[in-house]
């Protein structure tokens, strides 16, 4: 009997041990699950907070651009959008906003608009490449990347054969045939490596609609690309002029010695590519979490803001410019037609603009800006 009782006690002890182990395992699993749930909740909270901070930064940028638009009809480095914006504090978070005029750069999507090649824009881009000591044929490759046909521009060769070595090519070696979303995509274009892109980056953008070059903010290098043989040093006169006062029309460009010799046909070809205001701004939003001293978290976002004429105004401009025969190269329904002097306005009254966010991109690190 004692042996049986001893065995029973052993079984009971083993059962208790198994129960303890089972309870420990279940408790551990519940604790791990709870930690995951807490972590997930924390991440969702951080994500929501980030989106709120970015939204606040967007609204700040929009407010600055809209306020500036009410002051004048031009965009220059003397305007309030071009001045440093003090950080905005929201609880334990700090939000910083930097604005950049995308019209101070050449928009590579200008090359192909409304199903047609803009030959004047293509020539300007080729001259810009030459200014930077890069191969002008890169412009053709950039155009073929986005146009909708399957032939190399003005060459007749098949794109799938000529560009078969491009990393952008798919299995059947066809090009995307769509506009660029980012200048980083240029690395998929034949002839553009890391060094070439680094050289080009300060002078180009990839806005999803037609953006003329703002002569009030464009660099001397880009201004020199307006005509063959010009140099950035020769464009210093224009830069000096605009530091004193924003240029209100592109007529000032034709007054420069190396541009005064252009005939009416040449000026008419260039004029639609130029403006005295900006139709696109890039915003860099930096969010800093100062909740834990010494362990600040940084988050970044870039936001593209468009500034285009209201529909009614754009229609009025279109009718007026069409009657003058100067509506070529106005390549987006949301972009107002431009008259020969580069202004987007009719009469002397102040015209309001439609200012909206076009695109947003989140970054885990500070992007090049």
TrEMBL record:
Keywords: Cell inner membrane, Cell membrane, Membrane, Protein transport, Transmembrane, Transmembrane helix, Transport. Residues 104-208 form the T2SS protein K first SAM-like domain. It holds the Pfam family T2SSK. Residues 311-347 have a biased composition (Low complexity). It is found in: Cell inner membrane. Residues 311-351 are annotated as: Disordered. Belongs to the GSP K family. PANTHER family: TYPE II SECRETION SYSTEM PROTEIN K, TYPE II SECRETION SYSTEM PROTEIN K-RELATED. This is Type II secretion system minor pseudopilin GspK. It comes from Psychrobacter namhaensis.
């Amino acid at each position: 009997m004692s042996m049986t009782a001893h065995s029973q006690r052993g079984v009971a002890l083993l059962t208790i041990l198994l129960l303890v182990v089972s309870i420990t395992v279940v408790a551990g699993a519940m604790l791990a699950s709870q930690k995951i749930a807490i972590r997930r909740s924390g991440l969702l909270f951080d994500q929501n907070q980030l989106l709120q901070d970015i939204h606040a930064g967007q609204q700040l940028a929009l407010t600055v651009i809209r306020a500036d638009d009410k002051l004048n009809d031009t965009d220059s480095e003397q305007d309030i959008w071009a001045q440093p914006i003090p950080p905005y504090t929201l609880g334990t978070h700090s939000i910083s906003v930097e604005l950049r005029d995308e019209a101070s750069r050449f928009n590579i999507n200008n090359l192909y608009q409304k199903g047609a090649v803009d030959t004047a824009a293509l020539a300007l881009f080729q001259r810009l490449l030459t200014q930077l000591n890069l191969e002008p044929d890169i412009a053709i490759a950039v155009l073929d990347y986005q146009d909708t046909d399957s032939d190399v521009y003005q060459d007749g060769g098949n794109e799938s054969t000529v560009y078969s070595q491009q990393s952008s090519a798919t299995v059947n070696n066809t090009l995307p045939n769509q506009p660029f979303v980012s200048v980083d995509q240029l690395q998929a274009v034949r002839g553009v490596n890391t060094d070439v892109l680094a050289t080009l980056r300060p002078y180009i953008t990839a806005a999803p609609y037609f953006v003329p070059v703002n002569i009030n903010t464009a660099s001397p290098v880009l201004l020199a690309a307006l005509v063959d043989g010009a140099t950035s040093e020769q464009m210093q006169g224009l830069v000096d002029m605009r530091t004193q006062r924003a240029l209100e029309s592109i007529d000032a460009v034709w007054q420069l010695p190396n541009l005064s010799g252009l005939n009416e046909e040449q000026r008419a070809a260039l004029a639609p590519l130029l403006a005295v205001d900006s139709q696109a701004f890039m915003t860099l939003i930096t969010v800093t979490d100062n909740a834990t001293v010494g362990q600040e978290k940084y988050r970044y976002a870039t936001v593209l803001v468009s500034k285009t004429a209201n529909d009614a105004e754009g229609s009025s401009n279109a009718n007026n410019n069409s009657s003058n025969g100067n509506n070529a190269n106005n390549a987006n329904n949301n972009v107002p037609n431009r008259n020969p002097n580069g202004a987007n306005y009719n009469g002397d009254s102040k015209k309001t603009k439609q200012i909206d966010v076009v695109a947003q991109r989140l970054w885990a690190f500070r992007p090049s800006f």
